[in-house]
Amino acid sequence: MVFDTRPLSKKKATYIRQLSLKKYRLQENAFVLEGEKNIQTLLTSSYAIRWIVGTAAFFMKQQVLFEGLSYPIACFEADTALLSTLGSLQHNHDVLAVVDIPKKITEPILSGITLALDNIRDPGNLGTMMRIADWYGITNILCSNTTVELYNPKVLQASMGSFLHVQVHYVDLYPYLQQLQIPIIGATLQGSNVHHFCFPNQGILVVGNESHGIDYEIEKLCADTVTIPAYGHVESLNAAMATAIICDNWRRSLQPLFPPPMRP
Amino acid sequence: MVFDTRPLSKKKATYIRQLSLKKYRLQENAFVLEGEKNIQTLLTSSYAIRWIVGTAAFFMKQQVLFEGLSYPIACFEADTALLSTLGSLQHNHDVLAVVDIPKKITEPILSGITLALDNIRDPGNLGTMMRIADWYGITNILCSNTTVELYNPKVLQASMGSFLHVQVHYVDLYPYLQQLQIPIIGATLQGSNVHHFCFPNQGILVVGNESHGIDYEIEKLCADTVTIPAYGHVESLNAAMATAIICDNWRRSLQPLFPPPMRP
């Protein structure tokens, strides 16, 4: 082995378990990331890793990953039984990392499409929305301070590594949007048909709370609102699903206009 | 009260708890549906309800729902503490129903867009796909026999009542698709760009397993395959998310062609 691993102490195991709670994450300024694929991507990112805890098999297999690192990382060995008690995942108990929460970026530089999330409460939804943003090349997400915390284990899990590519900024959403000079488009149930809407080249897509939609004051800031046309009985789509569909429509509208294909 | 309710017996409570397992659902030919909104819709459907178990407050509030029924339903009273031990929901412990699993429909009549799910394993995904189908007016879903069971509580919960509007047929997918005379389109990672693809007026959209995609033999039955163009780093979209986006593209392509909006 090109690096040393020590057995994980009980004290450190307790510390890691505590980080499943938001209170401790904020106090310790650290979060836990689980899963081999996530750790692989993490090692190529600019995040500061404090510890890596993995099985002997993981360290053997992934030796090469650690060879190119510009700084040493404290590595600890634990078996899968112990690892499964430390994290939140139901499977994938080979490795986890304790990572510094990065300092706040003072001011996001917005370009192209930006997502703004008003009071999204479900961690799975936030994670999925980050994955969608990443898919559509959206690099900034503005979150209201009431939106679920980024480093919640369920958010990280649902984001499938996208949190390493997408910048998430927690802001006081109303005043933040108010001072912007770019068009704001709200996703609502009574807006323009998203299939015919003429999206701007640059803008903000605001998606509201799962039950209550966009805050009334924030909706007033929207230059336009858009709606996905419904053809059936169901009253609403899940917020992440609606985000995916609207982002797809926005993206396709920005492409150089091809002649429409002939219908057979 | 216009109808009688009796307290729920211990024996019936045990019976209901057992229905959380597939084995008992198949043996007893019954499933459990939870939540006030679901029950409201259920009462207007053709499903045969065996029992309704609710709080006194639920029966008081919803009296009018029961007045229009053409057949009597056995109603049992339980408090929220007991109800919370019977079902699978984390919230919404006001009411649940024990419902007969309907007899198999011999032959689905396919028209417009039909969804075919090849080995979807995640109950949340199946439920979400039913909600998407319902949104886009898709009335039939063909499921491979390896796809997660429709009456799994997590499927019903994620479907948000859409299982009452969408017909789900479990079939031996390969021979079933093989004998169809309508075009089959597969969702893959190397297909035609979904933004430019010319969708037929009628057809089947095949979505494959979350990890392995569409079965090789089934993919060979596809007249075409489509892909959602990616603009970022993430390798794949969740299967339900991809289904939503492709259904949206298919639906919008079937609309009377409007002149494209002028870009500002």
Write the layout of secondary structure elements.
The structure is a homodimer of 264-residue chains.
Chain A: E1 5-7, H1 10-18, H2 22-28, E2 30-34, H3 36-43, E3 49-54, H4 56-61, H5 63-67, E4 74-77, H6 80-86, E5 95-100, E6 113-117, H7 123-135, E7 140-144, H8 153-159, E8 167-171, H9 173-178, E9 184-193, E10 203-207, H10 216-220, E11 224-227, H11 239-253
Parallel strand pairs in A: 1-4, 3-4, 6-7, 6-10, 7-8, 9-10, 9-11
Antiparallel strand pairs in A: 2-5, 3-5
Helix pairs in contact in A: 7-8, 7-11
Rg of chain A (CA only)? 21 Å
CATH topology of the largest domain in chain A: Alpha/beta knot
CATH secondary-structure class of the largest domain in chain A: Alpha Beta
Instruction: State the domain count of chain A.
Output: 2
Fraction of helical residues of chain A: 25-40%
- Give the CATH superfamily of the largest domain in chain A: SPOUT methyltransferase, trefoil knot domain
Number of strands of chain A: 11
**Order of H and E elements of chain A:** EHHEHEHHEHEEHEHEHEEHEH
Q: How is the biggest beta sheet of chain A arranged? A: 6 strands, parallel
Q: Provide mean pLDDT of chain A, rounded.
A: 90
Count of helical segments of chain A? 11
Structural class of chain A: alpha/beta
Low-confidence stretches of chain A: none
Please state the second-level CATH architecture of the largest domain in chain A: 3-Layer(aba) Sandwich
Strand order of the largest sheet of chain A: 8-7-6-10-9-11
**Shape descriptor of chain A:** elongated
